[in-house]
Design goal:
alpha+beta; Cytochrome p450; 3-stranded antiparallel beta sheet; 10 strands; 50% helix; 13% strand; binds protoporphyrin IX containing FE
Length: 403
């Protein structure tokens, strides 16, 4: 053994385990304890990793180009690296900037808002049959098909492709919920295959590059060079799952929050200008990307805790957004906070799809409060599991609003 190996024994403390049932069901209690007593926490789960729980620490990592990389893993437990790279998420600067710039036309405000009528029509089509005195499947009937179909419209995919993506992602979510990582990684390879075949198809049959993201990326001239097929497939691949599962879990939390706060339904119906603020506050409280990860490229010290090089570090957004040093009464829903939540991350990798996600959420709440007077949850709600957060399954009665 070399002296270098001897000098860096792995930490053995097990300050927390996000995978145990009590922490999955109520993550907020353990997050609160960690922020107070062990803000830079180590877990021996999944080969060992660190967790940052405080808002300022996570923001500092978000803008730090020198001590962390996103190229090793972006989630804990790490997904196998044999498949397509998830771009731009698994890239560092300067390539990160190149990919983000290439994607930016489709993620801009004007492009996103242009899709609003289609997204609204979809919301109405799916919501109307659910409203009435009967028990409805909120996730299977609304949040899941709504977010997949909205994403396919966004990416410029046809109905057949949308059906295939939906099928793949349903199986993927089932495996993740059951914590069956072997099956999940097999399905993940199939989703890679789906992204690769999208690229092959658009090379043979180009779509409109303005509205078909795959065609647009393939044809993009980057100062005289083009992206490789793998780069294009990697850019599309990231949104295929992240672009709808995260919004699905979040919209489930929104419906649950409205069910638990019936007065809010009437308030938002009477004053729709409050809806964007309500959406931000629910993003803060129920951040659906519970945690994403980086890897240290050299030893770092945070709040007196040394972390060696090559260590996974989870950025616990869900905890940061309830940090009592930043947010007064952090567990309360309050309209009118000056919002500075980091549910969309912070810094170099902050969510490029945030305007689209906000639009979907606004349209959902507008159409819901217009039609519904109260929501009664029927039966147990199932929660999304680490590293996600939100509602994975819920049945409810959506009682109609009679004007
Ligand atoms: C409520 C909905 C959403 C939430 C809360 C959310 C959250 C996040 C977060 C926290 C990150 C930062 C990752 C990091 O720092 O490691 C991220 C990145 C990203 N998100 Fe979202 N997201 C949402 C919806 C979407 C949608 C709808 C799309 C696509 C249509 C999307 C595409 C992306 C992409 C491409 C990145 C990578 C950006 C980069 O690495 O530079 N997201 N998202």
């Amino acid at each position: 053994m070399t002296s270098e190996q001897k000098s860096a024994p792995p930490p053995v403390t097990n300050d927390w385990d996000p995978s145990i049932q009590t922490n999955q069901a109520d993550p907020f209690s353990i997050h609160r304890q960690l922020r107070a007593k062990c803000p830079v926490a180590h877990s021996t789960q999944w080969g060992g990793f660190w967790t940052l729980t405080k808002y300022e620490d996570i923001r500092a990592v978000g803008v730090d180009k020198d001590h962390y990389t996103a190229t090793v893993r972006t989630i804990v437990p790490s997904s196998p690296r044999s498949g397509l790279p998830r771009l731009p998420l698994q890239a560092d600067q300067p390539l990160l900037g190149v990919y983000r710039k290439a994607l930016s036309p489709w993620f801009s405000d004007p492009y996103t808002l242009r899709l609003e009528p289609n997204v609204r029509a979809l919301a109405v089509e799916l919501l109307e049959p659910l409203v009435g005195g009967h028990e409805a499947d909120v996730v299977g009937g609304f949040t899941e098909p709504f977010t997949v179909r909205a994403l396919c419209t966004f990416l410029g995919m046809d109905d057949r492709e949308a059906d295939r993506l939906r099928e793949l992602s349903l199986t993927y979510v089932e495996a993740i919920q059951a914590q069956d990582m072997k099956s999940a990684s097999g399905i993940s390879r199939e989703i890679d295959g789906f992204a690769i075949s999208l690229v092959e198809d658009r090379k043979a049959n180009p779509g409109d590059p303005r509205t078909d993201v795959t065609t647009g990326l393939l044809q993009m001239d980057m100062n005289g060079t083009r992206f490789t097929d793998t780069e294009v497939a990697g850019m599309v691949r990231l949104s295929l799952i992240g672009g709808h599962i995260v919004p699905k879990n979040y919209l489930g939390s929104v419906v649950r929050h409205l069910a638990e706060n019936p007065d809010l339904i009437a308030t938002l119906r009477d004053q729709p200008s409050l809806i964007p603020d309500a959406i931000e506050e629910m993003l803060r409280l129920y951040s659906p990307n519970q945690a994403l990860a980086r890897t240290t490229t050299c030893p770092v010290e945070i709040r007196g805790q040394r972390i060696e090089a090559d260590e996974p570090v989870a950025l616990l957004f869900l905890s940061a957004n309830r940090d009592e040093d930043i947010f007064e009464a952090p567990d309360d829903f309050r309209l009118g906070r000056k919002q500075k939540h980091i549910a969309f991350g912070y810094g170099q990798h902050s969510c490029i799809g945030q305007q689209f996600a906000r639009m979907q959420a606004r349209v959902t709440v507008e159409e819901l409060v217009r039609r519904v007077s109260s929501i009664e949850i029927a039966g147990p709600v199932s929660n999304a599991v680490w590293p996600e957060y939100g509602v994975a399954g819920m049945r409810a009665r959506l009682n109609p609003h009679i004007a």
